[in-house]
# Entry
Amino acid sequence: MFLLVLSAAVFGYNILRESHRPEGEVAERERLRAPDFTVLDVFSSEVHFYDFLGKPVVLNFWATWCPNCVEESPHFETLYQEMGDEVHFVKVNLLDGDRETRGRVNNFMNTHGYTFPVYFDTTGQASGLYGVRTIPLTVFIDAEGYLVAITQGQITEYQLREGIELAMNSGQ
# Structure
């Protein structure tokens, strides 16, 4: 529902902007490019976000101590298993070495049998670029690297599917 409201708001804004455009100015849909960032994979190798482009991306900021993040994790696993070949799932854990550690993340993943890929934002670069103030935060990005939709707070499986569909159909 939130994604529908967000899409309607963007659509309405674009229509209003078009109707108030000075004569002779070319109408063009504004698209915001997703910022690039570097995180670490489970092997401590650097991974650059732009390496994921070419397929739509579901970018999720989370932590194991966050109840809403824990509650939404099964939805990510379900869709990762179903659509992992068509969409990149980039689950960025806000690792701080105190409240959130690799050991806690590994235990969480093993306990629940999750197989979705996890990346670690050890410097705060990724969360800073995306303005993460509270988690979970899920960002849907099209294959070309443009922002499509954002969901703040716990996401349902339906919302996750809807966001992926928007990202897959964006720019077509």
Notes: The helical segments are 2-19, 67-83, 102-112, 125-129, 157-169. The chain has one domain: 31-169. Residues 31-169 form a domain with the Glutaredoxin fold (CATH 3.40.30.10).
